[in-house]
Structure formats: structure tokens, C-alpha cells
Amino acid sequence: MTRNKFSKIFLVINKFAGYRKKYSLAVYKVVSVLQENGCEVEYSYTNHPGHATELAFTAASKGFELVVAVGGDGTVNEVAQGLIGTATPLGIVPMGSGNGLARDLGIPMNIKKSARLLVEGNLKLIDVCRINSQRFLCTAGIGFDALVADKMAKAPTRGFLRYIQITLKESIAFKPFKIKMKVNGLWIEKPVFLATFANARQFGNNAFIAPKADISDGLMDVVVVRPFPKIWLPVFGIVLFLGIIPKLPVVEYHKAKQVELQLAETPFFHFDGEPGKLKIPATIGVDREKLLVVAGGKK
């Protein structure tokens, strides 16, 4: 890691992510902190899907030294798409409902503290993963977690409590689905509850689906959860937040550079918490390109 000092910073703001009512105040706080540190700041709001990528790419092309995603993991993913493989770093001011990548990078959830980190933090080169043509930074998955992501995207409000409500409600009727995939030469063909492909350790909100993951090790953590009695769901949740999910007898844990997914009998798929459409067969793995980010001092 190396220390950074930026003089020209561009903010990409998704005012529709996470806690929506806080955005005007958040922008004021972030701009104030950066200007107090001698930074020239410009910003723009997103107004359509993919706009954050366009804004980030344009800002990097115009010579901005740092491009900052102000929003949740979906916004961070979009901004990153315009910066992957370039020398322009990504900064994050977490304003989403989960903020998985920000938490994994040691970025404070407090707006002023995360803004201060943009000028005081460290530069870190991290891996980027890909499922077919879709890149992701934190996690991608199929099954129950993807169903919850789909319902969260359609919910009128976000936040941790909404996440818990949706999880409990959807768990009642959710049925396991069959997958067939090749991991490190081993074929896995069985019914599952979910299958997660992780670059970072968590979904968000410190729910550690892949506690052994290292975002810079050149490998992807593959977590397969087999079906279990619904009465176990509270235990599963507790273990998830304790970061000891590999210890569960229904969990298979692998590290791999690439996975070949041949079958997934579910329509639900997500990348960095955003619902998407999955084309089978699918190749999931670590991308050749890397991403430079501003990170905190701890993992």
C-alpha cells in the first residue's frame, strides 16, 4: 500500500441508493472535507443505469486523480467499470444499505470519516472477478441470496431491518435448486440453498459469507450451502455474522481461479447485490484486470 494525495477529485453520486433522504447533506459534508484539505472537487448525479460508468470513465479521461462512488455496492460496481485497468483510483463514500466492499476495505461508515479517508487513506490494488461478461468486486451468487437481492431492489425502502424482514419472509417458501459446476477439477452436482462466488469476505452489513477471502490474492472463494431444515435459519444467520460459516456441516468451501457453471435451476442471480440475468453455461473467475482503490488501514 502507498499513501495518496489527490488535488482533483470527481464524485459520482447515486441519490437513489440506500438511505435516500441523506444525500444532499452527505454531498455537502464530503465536498467540505475535501475542500478543507485543498482538493478541487466536482460532482455529478447519475440518472440512468450505466451512467455512473460513463461519468467515471469521462472523469478519468479528463485527468481527475480520484473518482469517488457515493452510494451503495451497486453504485460502486458501476463506477469501477469505468476505472478497471486504469491508473485512476476508486474512492468510496458508503451510502448503501449493505456497503460490503467499503466494509471489507476498512472504510468508515461515517460520512465525514470516509471523506477524510479519501485524502488520508492508502492506495491498494485489488482483484476484479467476472461472471461471463459481468464484472463484480464483492460477491456474486445464485439462489437464496440472489432472491433476497431481487426483493431488496424492488422494496420501497432499504436498510438492515428491511433485509432481515425479506430474508425471513422469503425463506418460508424457498426451495433448493440443482446446480452442476466444476471447481478445481471437481464436479459438484447436487441441490443447494445458495452458491456464492466471493472476491471480498462479506455480502454487506458484516455478514461474512466468505470469511477466508482475500481481495488481493488472485483467487475467488466459492461457498456452496446445501439444503438444511428451515428451523436452522436463525443459526445460519448467527454463524454468518460471526464469520464462521465454513464450520457448518452443510457448507462446502473452495478457493479457485475459475469455475465452470453448467447448470443452475434458478432464475435468481446477483452481482454485488444487484439482480441480473444469468446465461448458462457460465464461466466465473478472476479477471486479468485489477482495480486501484483507496482503502483504510485495516483489512
Q: Any idea of the CATH topology of the largest domain?
A: Tumour Suppressor Smad4
- Please state the overall shape, judged from the principal axes of the Cα atoms: globular
CATH architecture of the largest domain: Sandwich
Derived from helix and strand composition plus strand pairing, the structural class reads alpha+beta
How many E-type strands? 17
Helix proportion: 25-40%
Distance separating the two termini: 12 Å
Report the top-level CATH class of the largest domain: Mainly Beta
**Overall number of domains:** 2
Spans with pLDDT under 50 lasting ≥5 residues?
Answer: none
Q: Provide mean pLDDT, rounded.
A: 93
The gist of it:
With 299 residues, this protein is α+β, with helices and mostly antiparallel strands. It contains eight helices and 17 strands. It has two domains: 2-127, Rossmann fold, CATH 3.40.50; 134-288, Tumour Suppressor Smad4 (Sandwich), CATH 2.60.200.
Task: Explain how this protein is built.
There is one protein chain. This protein is of the alpha+beta class and 299 residues long. The chain contains eight helices and 17 strands. The chain has helices at 23-36, 51-61, 73-81, 100-104, 111-120, 144-154, 160-173, 233-242, and strands at 2-3, 8-13, 40-45, 66-71, 90-94, 122-131, 134-136, 139-143, 177-183, 186-192, 194-198, 220-225, 251-256, 258-264, 269-271, 274-276, 282-295. Strands 1, 6, 7, 9, 10, 14 and 17 form a seven-stranded antiparallel β-sheet that branches. A six-stranded antiparallel β-sheet has the order 13-12-11-8-15-16, with helices on one face.
